Amino acid sequence: MEENSTAIELVELTTLNIDCTLSVKERKKEFLKQIKNPGHFLVDGIEVEVNFSSDSLTLKNCLEKYLKN
Known about the structure:
alpha+beta, two-stranded antiparallel sheet, 12% strand
């Protein structure tokens, strides 16, 4: 993935702090609030852009799976 000037504006995933005592619904809200753009963020300083094909899991399904763990 090519670096670009928007990398500075991206949120570092490893800095998120989600309270595990919250309900799944509230954890989802908190994740979205903190990450700002769940399709474009940083992981250990590496830019990540998420794309889904039309025949795979939805973003909602992926986020639910991620937040349940």
